[in-house]
Design goal:
alpha/beta; Isopropylmalate Dehydrogenase; Protein-Tyrosine Phosphatase, Chain A; 3 domains; ten-stranded mixed beta sheet; globular; binds NADP nicotinamide-adenine-dinucleotide phosphate; binds magnesium ion
Length: 399
């Protein structure tokens, strides 16, 4: 069988623990036998990050900026225990955080929906993607405890030291609490652009929700940026057959529970934090949740939403069999390969990625799955497979 040629190099970011084990299996079983592909490899395993003083992480992000598409394995974000375990020089920052800030990107999470794995919400039939703004608001706030009566003011002093605006937050008659938050127009702008890039790329309508009836300047600023971009992008949205809709956050929450799904739900930082966990648990397993980082310039990094699955890795280290679900990691690869094919204008590459995805879904719908899905699935004859057996079952179908 002749291999399918991928024109442009794909940036590969290797990772840690159980997902690193799965990573190699995916390449050996699904990638190298079928594709003639140049992988620009970066080892983001925690030991090599330590060895390079984390330079490898920065290099990998720059490679994604250069080539346009990357695929990333889950990585350890070291804490004090990890520093000891791997004798690290220090607690290196989260690679995802480093890459996100270099790409100035937004993370979108999308569940893989499978016929015999019903979601907890009866009406949800299609995936709901969540785009969460990842800068500012309550996550960069300042707070004060107010011990007794007194006045709190919000003051804006310009760069020349002139007071330009002042409002009273509260004239306290007794003790209380107060908080200051901010956001930056450039960051909101990048977020909105990434959301439109993602929705156009996935052909999903965009829902954006805030509370601009109450917050007439702060939330309204977010809304205006999204509304204006929707006007500017109207021709592209029309061509893709998708719409942009603005909703009040409480209205969006109520509507989403009755909707069949299939939209990108763009949310401010706090709302996205809360709603992404709700939507993820509604769709079932972490092993079925994919994630993609999209930059405002249209650069893409695909990964699984879950971590390195340390508990399973401890069993693997002892030589025991594992039940780790490889589906989200496989879809990280197929997502990246399909995007590569789309950007290179090579439909056979896109088609290959879709065939792998179909083989994965057919395998599960045929009743073969890992332990995490067994209790969720309504398939009549369910068969539990271990990590490697499941991948082999998919390969068999693919061939
Ligand atoms: P985790 O790796 O997501 O695993 C948490 C638990 O979720 C697992 O123990 C397992 O439950 C279940 N699970 C997750 N993925 C699964 C899969 N593919 N198949 C089957 N079950 C799955 O989170 P964690 O244990 O909190 O974190 C481990 C490491 O990952 C940490 O060092 C953290 O820094 C890192 N992390 C990295 C990323 C990233 O790179 N994007 C994201 C999150 C965490 P059972 O044990 O009950 O089977
Ligand atoms: Mg959360």
């Amino acid at each position: 069988m002749s291999k399918i040629k991928v024109k442009t190099p794909l940036v590969e970011l290797d990772g840690d623990e159980m997902t690193r084990v799965i990573w190699k299996e995916i390449k050996d079983k699904f990638i190298h036998p079928f594709l003639d592909i140049e992988l620009e490899y970066y080892d983001l395993g925690v030991e090599y990050r330590d060895k390079t003083d984390d330079k490898v992480t920065v290099d990998s992000a720059n490679a994604i900026l250069k080539h346009g598409v990357g695929v990333k394995c889950a990585t350890i974000t070291p804490n004090a225990d990890r520093v000891k375990e791997y004798s690290l020089k220090k607690e290196w920052p989260s690679p995802n955080g480093t890459i996100r800030s270099i790409l100035d990107g937004t993370v979108f999470r999308k569940p893989i929906t499978i016929n015999n794995i019903p979601s907890a919400v009866r009406s949800w039939k299609k995936p709901i993607s969540i785009g969460r703004h990842a800068y500012g608001d309550i996550y960069r706030n300042v707070e004060m405890i107010i011990p007794e009566a007194g006045k709190v003011e919000l003051v804006y002093t310009d760069a020349n030291g002139n007071v330009k605006d002042k409002v009273t937050v509260q004239d306290f008659k007794s003790s209380g609490v107060v908080m200051g938050m901010h956001n930056i127009e450039k960051s909101i702008d990048s977020f909105a652009k990434s959301c439109f890039n993602y929705a156009l790329s996935e052909k999903m309508p965009i829902w954006f929700a805030t509370k601009d009836t109450i917050s007439k300047k702060y939330h309204a600023k977010f809304r205006k940026i999204f509304d204006d971009l929707a006007v500017a992008k109207k021709a592209e949205l029309d061509a893709a057959g998708i719409y942009y809709g603005y909703y009040l956050i409480d209205d969006a929450v109520a509507q989403i529970m009755k909707h069949e799904g299939g939209m990108l739900w763009a949310l401010m930082n706090y709302d996205g934090d809360v709603m992404s966990d709700m939507v993820a648990s509604g769709f079932g397993s972490l092993g079925l949740m994919t994630s993609v980082l999209v930059s405002p310039e249209g650069k893409y990094e695909y990964e699984a939403a879950h971590g390195t699955v340390t508990r399973h890795y401890r069993k693997y280290q002892k030589g025991e069999t594992t039940s780790t679900n490889s589906v989200a990691s496989i879809f990280a690869w197929t997502g990246a390969i399909a995007k590569r094919g789309e950007l290179d204008n090579t439909p056979d590459v896109v088609d290959f990625a879709k065939k792998v995805e179909k083989a994965v879904i057919d395998t599960i719908e045929g009743g073969e799955m890992t332990k995490d899905l067994i209790s969720l699935s309504t398939a009549p004859n369910k068969k539990e497979l271990n990590t490697v057996q499941f991948m082999d079952a998919v390969v068999k179908r693919l061939k």
